Amino acid sequence: MAVPRPAAGTAVDPVGLEPVDEIVVTTLVDNVFDALLAGDERTTRTPLGVGPVQAPQFETGTTTVGLMAEHGFSALVSVRRGAVTTRLLFDTGLSPDAMVTNAGRLGIDPSDIQAVILSHGHWDHAGGLAGLAGRRGVRSLPMVVHPMIWTRRRLSVPGREPMELPTLSRRALEGEGFAVLERREPSLLVDGCVLITGEVDRTTEYERGMPPAHQRWTGDAWEHDPLVIDDQALVVNVRDRGLVVLTGCGHSGVVNIVRHAQRLTGVPELHALIGGFHLSGTAFEPIIGRTVDALTGLAPGLVVPGHCTGWRAQHALAAAMPDAWVAGSSGSSFKLAAPAGQLPD
């Protein structure tokens, strides 16, 4: 297994990431749904009132609902360059139903999805693939993954019975019609406008990965799996704004991920950071301060921590970056566009 190496300076083989005019990130699944959150010029919220759905206990036999929330993450990424818009699905949530249910309630047609990217193999990011296959008819739908995504893993917490995690099956996915594309290296999609990072360089001293309870099967024995080597992120460069970085869980370390994206692309500006930052729980709360300090120094215009970020980190990020931090929620859309009135080169 190749292990990411700390790397300084510019990339030996830099990625020429073409700028886009606009990206819209719509959170299809997050750990929370809050119908009372307010939107703004770049944020659109989903209120209560989606429906109607069957509910015989009411006089009309129906009710209106909001969106589903669960311990998982999924986002629809719509990238526009000129008159052309491409829609990508980044992760699929925990359960077979939540992502496709929420997409349906938001009026999103699964047949519009042109490719799927999985941030890593954990089941709370891949569980919705079954629902997608059932709704879309996914004949030859490209799916970009790291080759270690099939790793068998478990949680072995002292004093408890080990819990083996669901492991993705390449055979099953290909049988459903997904065209699986394995890459360790960075990948460019959508005519060079979307970067999938591949393996992320681990350059910070404090982002050390998962605790000893997180283990992988080597073929002979269970061993500590700190790196989650298949962890990768999606990156877009909004013209004259900077990078938009979308993470699943951020197992590589969210600061490592941003630095890696900056180094690969040569674009120093971080415009937005969205997704799971994995700062929840006793193993990760000690690094909240250093992570927040580093992200504050990067001065992003928008920070939307979700999923596994944790409430302590949310409070710290909101306090440190009050103008950039925005609460996440299933059904929230974040529109990031190039400055108006400027033409691309």
TrEMBL record:
InterPro entries: DHPS-like_MBL-fold (IPR041712), Metallo-B-lactamas (IPR001279), Metallo-beta-lactamase_dom (IPR052926), RibonucZ/Hydroxyglut_hydro (IPR036866). SUPFAM superfamilies: Metallo-hydrolase/oxidoreductase. GO terms for molecular function: hydrolase activity; transferase activity. Residues 86-162 form the Metallo-beta-lactamase domain. It comes from the Bacteria. The keyword Hydrolase applies. Coiled coil: none annotated. Keywords: Hydrolase. This is MBL fold metallo-hydrolase. It comes from Trebonia kvetii.
